[in-house]
């Protein structure tokens, strides 16, 4: 597999309040994505998914966080994105890599029409005139399900519904036909009908453009529907990665196993009520990144943990050709 994007040993640190130690929001993660492939990055809130996405585009606010180590390479770009001069990096953002942010209501500029916001990257990255960019913006908005000639392009974000704003955000991200799309929980706060429409739109656009996608979510149903491979994050580290079908059918990390067990299934509610039971949960909570336990970070919540788990940091172990897990007792699952 020829990788379009390669992330190696990426570490992102935030200033720490405890003993001056930095908070390791992302702690040495590696993954690759091929052209036309979708990699899902999953895990609970606070595990480092969005920080990883922002790091790829070097969008971490300098006073808040920094890339402490690692490399990020994109096919066709000469050099490491971590150390690329800012002038060249500006051509990567919105050009070679597009990003759909979590909250379009806060990421879209309220003072500009959606047409103007789609046209801006076309002028910057494709050197189109204002008139040509405006025409292309209308066509791009129509391609994501916002037709109506100049009617939709001339509206402001507050005049659109949640689903329409999400489509406008997708149009901004895809305006220059990026080779990689980063979708950071693109269906957050949308109802299931609009969510299904957005997912189908992303699939169709990926087939049409042949782009790779890093899809960030905590929704395993969306992972099963869209992704080819998945990486499960916990406390800043990837604890399991592999083909979606294989990880779903036989998860090898207790955290992945617990997340899948928490998914509600058709007919489960009736059985639970009949047995006076509740949905399965993972006991405990995600540890604070500034005060991670020794050894395996998941050990305090793991039913399989031993003293070795609480003292030794597990390495990433290969389970099969494209399946790896960070656990000392993975063979017992």
How many β-strand runs? 11
Distance between the termini: 29 Å
Question: What's the number of helices?
Answer: 13
Q: What structural class should be given to the helix and strand makeup?
A: alpha/beta
Major β-sheet strand ordering? 5-6-7-3-8-9-11-10
Low-pLDDT ranges: none
Biggest β-sheet, characterized?
A: 8 strands, mixed
pLDDT average, as an integer? 90
- Assign an overall shape: globular
Helix content: 25-40%
Rg, rounded, reads 21 Å
Could you state the order of secondary-structure elements as H and E?
EEEHEHEHHHHHEHEHEEHHHHEE
How would you describe what is shown here?
- The structure is a single chain.
- The chain is α/β, with parallel strands linked by helices and 333 residues long.
- Helices cover 34% and strands 22% of the residues.
- It contains 13 helices and eleven strands.
- Strand 1 and strand 2 form a beta hairpin.
- Helix 5 (130-143) packs across helix 7.
- The two termini are 29 Å apart.
- The mean pLDDT is 90.
List keywords for this structure.
8-stranded mixed beta sheet, 333 residues, 13 helices, alpha/beta, 3-stranded antiparallel beta sheet
Topology of helices and strands:
Blueprint: E1 3-14, E2 23-34, E3 38-42, H1 49-56, E4 66-74, H2 86-92, E5 97-100, H3 104-107, H4 114-126, H5 130-143, H6 150-153, H7 162-174, E6 180-184, H8 192-209, E7 212-217, H9 220-226, E8 229-234, E9 237-243, H10 244-249, H11 254-261, H12 268-274, H13 307-311, E10 317-320, E11 323-325
Parallel strand pairs: 3-7, 3-8, 5-6, 6-7
Antiparallel strand pairs: 1-2, 1-4, 8-9, 9-11, 10-11
Helix pairs in contact: 4-5, 4-7, 5-7
């Amino acid at each position: 597999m020829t990788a379009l994007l390669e992330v190696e040993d990426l570490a992102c640190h935030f200033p720490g309040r405890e003993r001056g130690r930095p908070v390791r929001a992302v702690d040495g993660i590696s993954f690759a994505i091929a052209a036309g492939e979708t990699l899902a990055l999953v895990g609970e809130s606070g595990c480092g998914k969005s920080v990883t996405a922002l790091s790829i585009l070097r969008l971490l606010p300098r006073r808040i966080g920094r890339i402490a180590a690692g490399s990020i390479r994109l096919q066709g770009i000469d050099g490491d994105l971590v150390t690329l001069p800012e002038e060249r990096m500006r051509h990567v953002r919105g050009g070679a890599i597009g990003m759909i942010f979590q909250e379009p209501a806060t990421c879209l500029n309220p003072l500009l029409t959606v047409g103007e916001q789609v046209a801006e990257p076309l002028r910057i990255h494709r050197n189109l005139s204002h008139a040509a960019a405006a025409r292309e913006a209308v066509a791009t908005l129509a391609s994501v399900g916002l037709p109506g000639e100049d009617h939709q392009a001339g509206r402001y974000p507050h005049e659109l519904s949640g689903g329409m704003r999400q489509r406008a955000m997708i149009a901004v991200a895809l305006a220059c036909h990026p080779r990689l799309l980063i979708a950071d929980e693109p269906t957050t706060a949308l109802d299931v009908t609009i969510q299904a429409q957005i997912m189908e739109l992303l699939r169709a656009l990926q087939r049409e453009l042949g782009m790779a996608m890093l899809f960030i979510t905590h929704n395993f149903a969306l992972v099963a529907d869209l992704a080819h491979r998945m990486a499960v994050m916990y406390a800043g580290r990837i604890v399991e990665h592999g083909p979606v079908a294989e990880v779903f059918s036989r998860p090898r990390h207790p955290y992945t196993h617990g997340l899948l067990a928490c998914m509600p299934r058709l007919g489960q509610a009736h059985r639970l009520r009949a047995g006076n039971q509740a949905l399965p949960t993972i006991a405990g909570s995600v540890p604070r990144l500034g005060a991670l336990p020794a050894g395996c970070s998941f050990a305090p919540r793991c039913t399989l943990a031993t003293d070795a788990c609480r003292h030794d940091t597990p390495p990433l172990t290969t389970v099969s050709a494209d399946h790896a897990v960070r656990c000392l007792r993975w063979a017992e699952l």
